[in-house]
Every structure is written in structure tokens, then in C-alpha cells.
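Suppose you are handed a protein chain with no further information: no name, no annotation, nothing but its sequence. What can you learn? This example shows the usual starting point.
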Amino acid sequence: MQILAVGFGGALGSVTRFVITKIANQFNIILPFGTLISNIVAALLMGLIIGIERQSQILPENIRLFLTVGCLGGLSTFSTFNIETVFYFENNNYLKGGINILLNLGLTLTFIYLGIILGKLIKS
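A reasonable first move is to predict its three-dimensional structure. Written in C-alpha cells, the prediction is:
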């Protein structure tokens, strides 16, 4: 049952990431904002779930796995972030590559922490 929960969640998260990227690409923004948006949303929601679960473990294990490992694991994309950054460096665009690294790492860390704080506030 856990494998199915993770698998279905992963499919849902991956499709959601694909749609976010398609929409973001229509705006022809300089950096790959679809990846950044997906990673930020996944980080915020992951932090929120962690914050709530730290207060009281209210989610059944299969639901938690569906949401965290499945949906949010499929939504966030470290490998796509990496390849986009490598492409910038291969094309000698070190500024965009560096900005991509700073935005993805800095904002996802910030938003996961913000999610944890919000999750704790919700359960308080």
C-alpha cells in the first residue's frame, strides 16, 4: 500500500510540475522559473506538513507518504535544477547559473523553514 501511495503521489506531483513549467515558460522569463516555483511550493508545503506533524502526528502513514515522498517529491526537482544550472555553465553564462543556484537553494531553504513555522502555528 505504501508503494502505491508514493507512486500515485509521485505521478500527481510530476504532472503538476510539468503544468507549472509549461505555464511559466509562456512568460519567457530569463531563468527557469517553472523549476524554481515548483521547488518553492514543494518546500513550503513540506515544511508545513513537518511543522504540523511535529506537534501531533495526525496524518496516517500512507497519507503522509502520499503527500511528502510522492506528491511533493514529484513536484520538487533537484535533478532538473542541476541540469539547468549545468547548461548555463556550459554556455559560459556563469551569472545566470550562479543566480539559479542562489535562488533555488536560498528560497527553498527559506520556504521550508517558513512552512515549519506556519505548521507549528496551525497546531498551537
